[in-house]
Amino acid sequence: MKIGIMTCWQPDDNYGTQIQGFALQKYLEKSGNDVFLIQYHRFDDILTLKRPFWKILKGLNPYLLLRFIKNKLDSKNQRKETLSHNRNAPEFRKKYLHLSKDYYTFDELSKQPPEADAYIVGSDQVWNIHYLQKNNLNAHFLNFGKYETKRISYAASFGFSEGKLNEKFAVAVKPLLSHFDAISVREKNGLEILKKIGIENAVHVCDPTFLISPDEYLEFFKDENVEFPENDYVFVYELSAASSLSIKKIKNWAYKQGLDVIYVTGHGKCSSEKRIFPAVPQWMKLIANARYVITNSFHGTVFSLFFHKPVAVFSLKGCAKTTNSRLDTLNMMIGRNLTIHKSSDFEKILLSNFDWDFFEIQKKTLREKGISFLSNALAGK
Asked: Could you give the CA distance from residue 28 to residue 148 in angstroms, rounded to a whole number?
């Protein structure tokens, strides 16, 4: 079967975005399918949209105008930061993924859709209202291609809680979802959001990274070299600045334990502290070889657990806190709370006992459920 995956593959400084797409493609290929990633440039398509006049007027409010300017400057600085450090994400995609042609607008995608027997949207925050406008809403809800092509979501994420559901968004996506053959979401609250929209037959499944074993990941990347410190180390992956993670406090604690610190950042995070910018395979191997991991990233947490590394997870704050639902779901999956709300709590979590046998049982159950969903959805059951 030929399958096209619609997922988040931008920006280049988000390791989880890259690895979840890789995992879903590799699993489907292992199952005997011809799989490719649809290279739809959702960020470029947003730039083609014209703001309604009322939004411009709203922007004339001094407070909103200042906030708008600040956000624009922050975004510009983040883009500059991202571009100044090469993580080799385009090279990773070209080497490890099968890719479609580039689609820079939904109009291009709609007029010349890639041929496939099935389209799968997911995983990651493909249904996050904050990232979607009219054009990429249609793209991420698979409103293109032949009528007979199967439309499936696998572990799609809204990235917000059901209390934040926008009525306009719900009205827009309900008819699009009605054309899906099978729907699954990554977070439990995604089921509640879908129920509010009027979709009752959705399933909760694991992130696609669970579909590949840790040994398989290391085998895929066995030829990728990485330079490890001579001493044991704490791996710190700060995806976003929107948390109370303090690299200085972590370093002070680590050095008292006789440990080095490897500090990696993403999402344009600026810092005066020494950082490194590994490619995806090196990022994964650094987690696999660490003594401890500290992060505020969902996928940083997932891979720490896969490789049985004690991990402490800082919750996100501000506008980003709506994405904490994915960590809440992960905590429920493993039967313990890894989330830190105060910066001083990370030591207590890292030094506590982790029940890896229980985690492996949970992971196996989740993986089997995800595999069963995909098998049935593709078979039309």
From this structure: 20
| Phi, psi for residue 148 in degrees, rounded to 5 | -80, -10
**Structure token digits, residue 120:** 């799968």
In order, the DSSP letters of 127-149 are T-GGG--HHHHHHHTT--S-TTS
**Interval 345-361: pLDDT, tens:** 888 888 888 889 989 99
Query: pTM of the predicted model, to two decimals?
Result: 0.86
Domain 228-350 maps to which CATH number in 3.40.630.30, 3.40.50.2000, 3.40.1170.60, 3.90.1150.10?
A: 3.40.50.2000
Closest CA relative to residue 370, chosen from 126, 213, 206, 201: 206
Alpha carbon distance 240, 253 (integer Å): 21
CA 361 to centroid of chain Cα atoms: 24
**pLDDT tens digits, one per residue of 269-294:** 666 788 889 999 999 999 999 999 99
* For the chain, domain boundaries: 2-212+365-379, 228-350
2-212+365-379 and 228-350 have identical folds: yes
Q: For residue 116, what are its two tokens? A: 């496939």
Q: How far apart are CA 148 and CA 303, in angstroms?
A: 37
Report residue 94 as tokens.
């070209």
**Residue in this structure with the two tokens 């696609």, named with its chain if needed:** 208
